[in-house]
Amino acid sequence: MSERIDPALPKAELHLHLEGAAPPAFIRGLAKEKSIDIAGIFDEHGGYAYRDFWHFLEVYEAACTTLQTPEDFRRLTLAVLEDRAADGVVYAETFVSPDFCGGGDLVAWREYLQAITEAADEAERTMGITLKGIVTPIRHFGPEKSRPIAQCAAETKGHFITGFGIAGDEKAFHPKDFTWAFDCAREAGLRLTAHAGEWGGAQSVRDALDHLKVERIGHGVQSIDDLALVDRLAEDGITLEVCPGSNVVLGVYPDFASHPIARLREREVKVTISTDDPPFFHTTLVKEYEELARVFGWTEEDFRAMNADAMRAAFCDAATRDRILKIIEGSA
Ligand SMILES: [Zn+2]
């Protein structure tokens, strides 16, 4: 019998796509206001509908077509943070892409960013949730397009934008094609992460570490097939942003029981738990914790330890980290 996990347990979530966390009702409302026909992306219950990972990317991009102005992103950020706060999240990092916010133009990006930051500040005051942003080019848009995105990130590094990463189809291009963008972000003082080892095998994680010199890996779960790599992750303190429900829904693993998160943790890799694109995967962070507790017998003590690890790997200033760590550790 597994321990009941208090849904209000304070949580830190490091891997969340802002547009991917958009509540479907919010996107439907925007589509209606703008007379955009995207009825085909919803199922009969009003949730997002897609066949597989590549179709998921198409549906995702179709949903994004409703997000056209800084004001849309201000409202989106508030809607997303309301959901996260309801999950007990006290600290979140979200991927934001200038590709979807002004098409990579710096002047436009600043306007979008101001709107997103305003919403984050409001949510911090009213909901007690802190949000930081990680700029991500979209991998399958190609290396050329990643350059202006990296420049947008470098120019706007600050209180809100603290990290740089890469998202999208892991099988498109090679990490070494994006070294210019990552070098640009690193030189600007941004912290680095990259999606790898979700669809790509263990080698894709090695490539992200070797070529992009990241300190965290988004997913990274396929590292389990290469135990020398697993030991390297543990020894170097590379934190994995693991999204078990996302992996199961997209078919990377058939179920939670065969998901490697527990085996990675047993080998002392720092694993953290996130939802990736929660409404797309019909999940919440509370549901993820419940399922992990049920399948692996994890307790609130285990989750507190993983949340503390998440904060130690968080892309935030020391004062924010220490403040949130007190909330997480003080919940014992
Ligand atoms: Zn992701």
TrEMBL record:
<feature type="domain" description="Adenosine deaminase">
    <location>
        <begin position="10"/>
        <end position="328"/>
    </location>
</feature>
<comment type="similarity">
    <text>Belongs to the metallo-dependent hydrolases superfamily. Adenosine and AMP deaminases family.</text>
</comment>
<keyword id="KW-0378">Hydrolase</keyword>
<dbReference type="InterPro" id="IPR032466">
    <property type="entry name" value="Metal_Hydrolase"/>
</dbReference>
<protein>
    <submittedName>
        <fullName>Adenosine deaminase</fullName>
    </submittedName>
</protein>
<dbReference type="InterPro" id="IPR006330">
    <property type="entry name" value="Ado/ade_deaminase"/>
</dbReference>
<dbReference type="Pfam" id="PF00962">
    <property type="entry name" value="A_deaminase"/>
</dbReference>
<keyword id="KW-0862">Zinc</keyword>
<dbReference type="InterPro" id="IPR001365">
    <property type="entry name" value="A_deaminase_dom"/>
</dbReference>
<dbReference type="GO" id="GO:0019239">
    <property type="term" value="F:deaminase activity"/>
</dbReference>
<dbReference type="GO" id="GO:0016814">
    <property type="term" value="F:hydrolase activity, acting on carbon-nitrogen (but not peptide) bonds, in cyclic amidines"/>
</dbReference>
<keyword id="KW-0479">Metal-binding</keyword>
<dbReference type="GO" id="GO:0046872">
    <property type="term" value="F:metal ion binding"/>
</dbReference>
